[in-house]
Amino acid sequence: MAVAAAGAPDDWPKGHYPLPERGDLIGQDDTVEAGAEETLLDLAREHNLGYEEIRRANPDVSVWMPGEGTEVVIPAQRLPPPVPREGIVINLAELRRYYYPEVEEGGTACRDLSHRHRS
């Protein structure tokens, strides 16, 4: 199945990224406000992050009671490993899996397979 790599990154489903024409960084960090009953772990799960990722991005935020309205950083920028971008690539250093599907001519795409993604 071929994938068209068109549209702005915001148009792509969560966990899918267009590859940049220059450089290797994909995705972008974001911020959200914690709800009254949300823990940092709830936000991590919602954004397909692991415990270590969310803690490193928010060292001064309580894991269990961030507090309503607390700004939480969602670290979503990735640096895929420097290997051929074909099929499934496992990056052991960051505990992530990437999938590089076949794309239409001139297009590039990457999917982060590390966690269960919700559209």
Blueprint of the fold:
Elements: E1 16-18, E2 30-33, H1 40-46, H2 51-57, E3 71-74, E4 87-91, E5 96-100, E6 109-112
Antiparallel strand pairs: 1-6, 2-3, 4-5, 5-6
The number of strands is 6
Order of strands in the sheet with most strands: 1-6-5-4
Q: What is the helix fraction of residues, given as a range?
A: 10-25%
Approximate strand percentage: 15-25%
How confident overall, as mean pLDDT? 80
Give the SSE string.
EEHHEEEE
Compose a concise summary of this entry:
By secondary structure, the chain is of the alpha+beta class. The protein has helices at residues 40-46, 51-57; strands at 16-18, 30-33, 71-74, 87-91, 96-100, 109-112.
Can you walk me through this structure?
- The protein has two domains: 1-27 and 83-119, no CATH class; 29-76, Roll (Membrane-bound Lytic Murein Transglycosylase D, Chain A), CATH 3.10.350.
- It contains two helices and six strands, in the order E-E-H-H-E-E-E-E.
- The protein has helices at residues 40-46, 51-57; strands at 16-18, 30-33, 71-74, 87-91, 96-100, 109-112.
- The protein is elongated and about 45 Å long.
Supply database-style keywords.
Membrane-bound Lytic Murein Transglycosylase D, Chain A; 4-stranded antiparallel β-sheet; alpha+beta; 2 domains; disordered N terminus; two-stranded antiparallel ribbon; 12% helix; single chain; 119 residues
